[in-house]
Amino acid sequence: MEKNGILNIRELTKEYGTHRAVDRVSFSLKEGEIIGLLGPNGAGKTTIINMILGILEPTEGTIEVLGRTLKKDSAAIKKRMNFAAVYAHMPANLTVRQSLIVFGLLYEVKNLKERISYLLNEFDLVELADKKTGVLSSGEMSRLSLAKALINEPCLLLLDEPTASLDPSVSRLIRDKIKAYSERTGAAILWTSHNMNEIEAVCDEVLFLSRGRILLKGNPKTLPMEYGERNLEELFIAVAREPLSLWEG
Amino acid sequence: MSLKRISAVFLRQMFLITSNPTRVAGIFIWLVIDVLQWGFISRYLTSLGQDSFSFVTVILGAIILWGFMSRIQIGILMAFMEDIWTQNLINYFASPLKISEYLCGLIMTALTTGTIGFFIMAVIAGIGFGYTIFKIGLIIIPFMVILLVFGISIGILIVSIIFRLGPAAEWLGWPIPVVLSLFSGVYFPISTLPEPLRVISIFLPSVYVFESIRVVITEGHLNSMVLYNLSSGLILSVSYLLITSAFFIHIYKKNLQSGNIARFNAEAL
């Protein structure tokens, strides 16, 4: 059965003066699909995510979510998506429960009380519910960020290094929760990470970015071999060090 | 506009304010000190023998209304700065929240703290100095509306500047009530100011309120000058609200282009 398109990006470009941070990037995400956005620091991953989130205006190109243009239907689209990012902190001076209440209202979640109760249980946050988020450990904070990201049951989830600085056990827990959510609801996920094992385990497809452009794309399990590398990590290093040779190849 | 999203912004601030008694005290302590200080000064001036003129009535009334306006302006600034200090803007603006809804949430927060501050000042003035602000009569309502709208405008102007220049510009917000009070005729009639400085006063809606209060208190009734002042103050304050709101939205759009919202924190700009 043909899967529904969730995200469609065409010729997305962002320029800062003469510097082109994102250069005519196009890709799409279908229902239940998880795509990994890879690339060295400064490749344009976060810039692309910020444009999809609507907090950065593209210089050119279009972003469509569920067939609607972000520029025209921003609020309606944002109700159907959410995000977690290592640099987007939850307000440190609110408790876990208060944070979820505030974000639940922002996303106009129905039956908010029940939804919060479910998320507190799902992410093992019940005992932390009345603690201020500022005193949470990295792992606890990541669980809260993910709970917030799922509060509106988004059909498009953007994750910018959701497991950065977490120990392997918490990383796996978070990863499993996200994958289970996507399988259960059909949510499409765009995922950036520098952990290649994680990407290989989770993603259906990867896009390698270099200097704002998509350099390579394909299945994370077979792509390294196509370019003569043993694994995704070695391919990543090759992209980071010698992007032009791969581009020409 | 979504009431739920506006209430989210408001609730976030209320959670914060009520989470710690020192935050509550921090909001109202200066208002209390102002009323006490000016109450005692006024009582002392009255004791010097000016029986025909009640300093307490004239000065305390003005202080309470000025405190209300300052609290509105600072309330908007504080609520906005909380979102910057906790790096919350990215979460807000990546959500369905519209910029107009965010502004409404800030205004609701400021209106709540400003109104509570007003009643606290009124009670202290009543208990401490036997002064009842409501003796001014129903005319206090349009006075307060003008000050409310002007306070909101100034608050929005300041957060727009900070939004444009970055959190380092925060210091601009704190002395503004003091500077404005000089030209608003809070403590003295603007005829006291040198001629060139009076030009500034003409453009401040607050001037029309405080000049009118003195007329109402000394003459005991409304006259055509007071009605003219009220109209002028209202037109000016509403104009400023429209202009500053448009300015804030313009800065927001500029920040969307420059990427400042994504990296808006105390260190980045």
Q: Can you give the mean pLDDT of chain B?
A: 87
Structural class of chain B: mainly alpha
C-alpha geometry of chain A: globular
Which CATH first-tier class of the largest domain in chain A would you pick? Alpha Beta
Taking pLDDT < 50 over at least 5 consecutive residues as the criterion, the unreliable ranges of chain B are none
Uncertain runs of chain A are none
Biggest sheet, spatial arrangement of strands of chain A? 6-7-8-3-9-10
CA radius of gyration of chain B: 20 Å
Q: Oligomeric state of the chains?
A: heterodimer
Q: What is the alpha-carbon Rg of chain A in Å?
A: 18 Å
Task: Sketch the major β-sheet of chain B.
Answer: none
Shape of chain B: globular
User: CATH homologous superfamily of the largest domain in chain A - what is it?
Assistant: P-loop containing nucleotide triphosphate hydrolases
Describe the main β-sheet of chain A briefly. Answer: 6 strands, mixed
Average pLDDT value of chain A? 88
Written as H for each helix and E for each strand, in order along the chain, the element string of chain A is EEEHEEHEHHHEHEHEEHHH
User: How many structural domains can be distinguished in the coordinates of chain A?
Assistant: 2
Q: How many runs of DSSP E, i.e. beta strands of chain B? A: 0
Number of helices of chain B: 10
* CATH-defined fold name of the largest domain in chain A: Rossmann fold
